[in-house]
Each structure stands twice: as C-alpha cells, then as structure tokens.
Amino acid sequence: MKIATFNINGINKRLDNLLEWLGETEPDVVCLQELKATDAQFPRSAVEGAGYGAVWRGQSAWNGVAILARGAEPVLTRQELPGDPSDTQARYIEAAVNGILIASLYAPNGNPQPGPKFTYKLAWMKRLEAHAGELLSAGVPIVLAGDYNVVPEPRDIYPTRSYDDNALVQPQSRVAFAGLLAQGWVDAIREILPGETVYTFWDYRRNRWQRNAGLRLDHFLLSPKVARFLADAGVDSNTRGRPNASDHAPTWIELNGWPE
C-alpha cells in the first residue's frame, strides 16, 4: 500500500501536474494540501476520471485539504482539528481508507514571527498534539500526513542563514514537532532514510530548486500499528522540476503486507 502527501499549491492551477503524477506513480492514498479552492471548485470529475474517490475541505484562495483513494471512497471522519471552535481555516481532514485512519494536515506557516501568526501556529500545533494523543490512545492504525511547516532539525534545511528568523526553524516550532514524536509517533522518512539529506520543498525564489536549496517540511507520522508495516519511503523530487510545478514535491511511504 502506497500513501503519498503532496502540497499541490493550487489544485486547479496544477491539475495537469497532479494527474500526470497520479498516472505515473499510482499511489493508493494521497493527502493533498493548499488546494486554494472552495468546495465547489474542487475538480471532482477529473480526480474521479483518474480513478480516485475523494473527500475534501476547501477554502477560497487559501488553505484547503483533501484525501484521495485509488479505486475506493474515503470514509470521512473529521473535517477540522478539534480544540478551537472559532478556527475556520481549512487545515485538517480525516478519513478511513483500507482499514487505516488517514489525516491530511496543513499546519500554519507562522510568519512573520514573532506576532499573531506565529502565536496561532504554536496554538494549532498544541491542538494537534492533543488530538494526536487521543488518537494514539484509541489504539487504531493511523497516519498523520501533510505539510507540517516545521523543519525538524538543522540537517533538514540546506546550509543557510537566510531562514534564521523564519517560523519554520524556530526552537518553539521544533519543540512542537518533537512533542508529537515523544508521544510515540514514528517519523517515516527518518525511519527509512536516517542518514540522508531529504528535502520536500524548494522555494521559487533565488533559484533554490536549481541549487537544491531545499527544506524538509512534509512529514508522515505513523502510529505503532502502522509503523511495523513500513517498508520504504521517498520523495518524487523530479516533479518539482516540471513546468508549472508546485514548490513542494510528493512524499510517499510504502506499507508491506497491509491490509493484513
């Protein structure tokens, strides 16, 4: 079973890119972020034509998350991150697919920091930690996939001082991510590629793709019941170099022997 996460950075603007990648790689489940489309603007017919059922939560111009399942219909379980009823940003969706609870999440960027956007980022991550803890307590197989907007360690960013003040690398952001790992979640990329340099995002500016000046922002956190099936993981970085590409590349994992 192959599960992927892809910050598409505008699903309608990059629909051809998405469909090309789906056709080439045929993932079983895809978590999408930054749809930048309302619910009504989601390209349902094109996604279905590619062989995927979908659930999504859109938002005009910003945010938006979705879960696609090849040859199946995801069973929607949640469309928002609990803990703040006043939060209307479309950043979290959950669905059951092939016996696994899948979450597609798009954590706040947090810039500029300090300021209200960074405060919101840290509060959102605290809510994620609380919900993740409840999910782990349920003892079911779970995958939390998406753009966490956190560079977990210095080795997850190219050598630079230009990001020193960026919310993505602040100690508070890294502590929030580490808090999830401390609960018992497994960082799938690091589990499979413990010593390798892995990037999933290359900013459009300053020729960062051409210079391989990347960051690791897109992560899979696996519950123990899923982690024992983890067989492989990687990044389809070649998609970042194509015309009209997202600034993120699809990141994926493979589970061997699932479903049981």
Automatic annotation (TrEMBL):
It holds the Pfam family Exo_endo_phos. Keywords: Hydrolase, Magnesium, Metal-binding. Gene3D superfamilies: Endonuclease/exonuclease/phosphatase (3.60.10.10). InterPro entries: AP_endonuc_1 (IPR004808), AP_endonuclease_F1_BS (IPR020847), AP_endonuclease_F1_CS (IPR020848), Endo/exonu/phosph_ase_sf (IPR036691), Endo/exonuclease/phosphatase (IPR005135), ExoIII-like (IPR037493). Its cofactor is Mn(2+); Mg(2+). Residues 4-248 form the Endonuclease/exonuclease/phosphatase domain. SUPFAM superfamilies: DNase I-like. Belongs to the DNA repair enzymes AP/ExoA family. This is Exodeoxyribonuclease III. It comes from Chelativorans salis.
